[in-house]
Design a protein that fits this description.
This is Endonuclease III. With about 220 residues, this protein is mainly α. It has helices at about 10-30, 45-55, 60-70, 75-80, 85-90, 95-115, 125, 135-145, 155-165, 170-180, 190-200. The protein is elongated.
Length: about 220
């Protein structure tokens, strides 16, 4: 009869997942040394706006829109006082422009009224802003402020987490919790960028290029998707 080790099956599996994640991070880090946030911005406010606009829209299209938008709206007060129809027209190419314009206007008003026109650095404060969910808050905190309360989970991160066997949870919040349990905190900000770059270049939603994948020997889905 084997001697008890003092470790549960779940603990051993978690340790194994952490080791595999460290290997994944190392390979992706070498493969994508220039990985970064794909949204163009120069201030926390610009990143917050761009991230709100990126919902159901490609980063490339958002960057085309914000090129002129950021020249016209430079402060939180500019969004707060914006003519709603004009703002809708300015962001129309990003889709869902009526809801997004309303969110941007409300966000601007909240920033002016509660935070002196500045983007707050606390998760709870960001989540209280119109148009801001946890993904958006994580993007802003991680990339604008270098703070990492969590891991950004978008469609690429969701897809790769499932294919790599790290999480098949049904919601972004649960996927984030699964990843936070196995990812070193120092990599919370960069891991999504590496996964997104890999998802776009190799592990695509359709016809993934498993033969060119640096993670193929670690991936339970390699060749089966």
């Amino acid at each position: 009869m084997p001697k008890p080790t003092g470790h549960t099956v779940n603990e051993l599996n978690l340790a194994s997942q952490r080791r595999r994640m460290r290997t994944v991070i190392g390979r992706l880090r070498r493969a994508y040394p220039d990985a970064r946030c794909s949204l163009n911005y120069t201030t926390p406010l610009e990143l917050l706006v761009a991230t709100i606009l990126s919902a159901q829209c490609t980063d490339e299209r958002v960057n085309l829109v914000t090129r002129e938008l950021f020249q016209k709206y430079r402060t939180a007060a500019d969004y707060a006082n914006a003519d709603l129809e004009a703002l809708q027209s300015d962001i129309r190419p990003t889709g869902f422009y009526r809801n997004k314009a309303k969110a941007l206007q409300g966000m601007g008003r909240q920033l002016v009224e509660r935070f002196g026109g500045e983007v707050p650095r606390a998760m709870d404060d960001l989540l209280a802003l119109p148009g801001v969910a946890r993904k958006t808050a994580n993007v802003v905190l991680g990339n604008a402020f270098g703070r990492a309360p969590g891991v950004v989970v978008d469609t690429h991160v969701t897809r790769l987490s499932a294919r790599l066997g790290f999480s098949t949870a049904p919601t972004p919040e649960k996927i984030e919790r699964d990843l936070m349990a196995i990812v070193p905190e120092r990599h919370y900000v960069m891991l999504p960028h590496w996964l997104i770059f890999h998802g776009r270049a190799v592990c695509r939603a359709r016809s993934p290029r498993c033969q060119d994948c640096v993670l193929a020997d670690l991936c339970p889905s390699a060749g089966a998707v």
